[in-house]
Amino acid sequence: MAAIARILLKLSGEALMGSDAFGYNAETMAGIVGQIKDVVDLGTEVGIVVGGGNLFRGATGALSGMDRATADSMGMLATVMNALALKDALQAAGVEARVQTAVTIAHVGEAFERDSAVRHLEAGRVVIFGGGTGNPFFTTDTASALRGAEIGADLMLKATKVDGVYTADPKKDPTATRYDSLTFDEAIAKNLGVLDTAAFALCREQKLPLAVFSIFKPGALKRVVMGEPEGTRVVL
What we know:
The chain has 236 residues and is an alpha/beta fold. It has one domain (6-155, 186-229): Acetylglutamate kinase-like (Carbamate kinase), CATH 3.40.1160. The protein has helices at 13-16, 26-41, 58-63, 68-92, 114-122, 140-150, 184-189, 197-205, 220-225; strands at 6-11, 45-50, 97-101, 110-111, 126-130, 155-160, 165-166, 178-179, 181-183, 210-214, 232-235. The strands form 2 sheets. A 9-stranded mixed sheet has the order 4-3-5-2-1-6-10-11-9, with helices on both faces. It has a two-stranded antiparallel ribbon with strand order 7-8. Helix 6 (140-150) packs parallel to helix 8.
C-alpha cells in the first residue's frame, strides 16, 4: 500500500513537553521528530500546525481576567516559538523545514502564503505553520483544518496522548471503548471533544478526512500514513 501523498499534522504544544510541566522535553521532541522523519522518508509531504499550550494558553489567560483577544494574541506568539523549536529539531535530524506564520514577525519566519507553502512541500520540505489563523477566538484545531484545506492535504492527523477517539474519557471511565471509525456528523452529535465544532465543520465541508492517534506510540504516525489500522478515522 502506498503512503498518503500529503498530510497536515496537528501537534499540541503539550505534546512537546512530554512529562514535564512546562516547555520542551528533549526525549519527547526527539521521538516526535523521529516519527515525522519516518514519513518524510516515505515521500509524504508534511505540513504541521503546532499549538502553544506548553508555553501559554489564550483561554487560560482570559479566564484569569485578561482580555480574550490579548490572551489569544499571546497564545499565537507561543505557537510561533514552538514552530521555531520544532524546525530546529527537525533540521538537526536532517529534515529540511520552513516556518510560515500567520502573525508576521520579520526575521523569524515567512509570512503564510499558500502557493509558497505548496512549493516548499513539493520540494520535500516540512512546513510548520505558526500563529494559528492569525485571529483571536479561533483554536489551533480550526487553524489545522484551514491549513489542511488550503494546502490540499489528503488527510488531517491529530496527534494526541490517547490512541484514538473513545466513547468517554478513558482515564475517567474504564468502560470507555475506542471507535475504529465514525463520521463527522456522529462526532459532532456525540460531542466527543476531539476537535472544536468549527474545525469539524470545516473538515466536513472541505471533505478532509481526519485521523486521531497517539503520537507517543512508536511508529504510529507511519502506520497511519501507510493506511494501516491505527487510531480512529473520522470520515464523511
